[in-house]
Amino acid sequence: MIVTRRRTPDTGDRRLETGDKKHMEKELKVAALRNGTVIDHIPADKLFQVVSILRLKYYDHPLTIGNNFDSKKMGVKGIIKISDRFLAEDETSKIALIAPNAKINIIKEYQVIEKRDLVLGDEINDVMHCVNPVCITNHQPVPTRFYVIQEGNKVHLKCRYCEREIAQDEIKLKKK
Ligand SMILES: [Zn+2]
Known about the structure:
By secondary structure, the protein is an alpha+beta fold. It has helices spanning 18-31, 47-53, 89-98; strands at 36-43, 63-71, 75-83, 103-108, 111-117, 123-125, 145-151, 154-159, 165-167. Strand 7 and strand 8 (154-159) form a beta hairpin.
């Protein structure tokens, strides 16, 4: 293989070398954000659900929503970068329900200061509906409560009131 590299005059203008390229691509992924949150490794088919959980349609700071990027682990993935926003606990637990393997990076002054895995607690309170039409939570103003049951990569939930078990693809989040 013949590699030609254009020589640049000594103006201090340094050209990209192959070794820098990888580094730069990595930088571009997160460094565009000065302060805020990056949610990475979102399954491509769950991306717009996360967008809706975070009500990003109404968000008026810089925002990047990308989908169908190559991912070694997942095939394709989605990523969301949100300037000037840090997620509240109820938001992260909603995301954990539908995209439990997503990764959250907190960015301050262009640096990743924290990488956070989404952790589902033992209980999920008042973020989703019970699918059982006769459940008391669908008739009385009581917050829903579910036990989280994890089996390997799969999560399902059990209503504390009516004991109905709900699979991950049946989850209906509350709109708040
Ligand atoms: Zn129920």
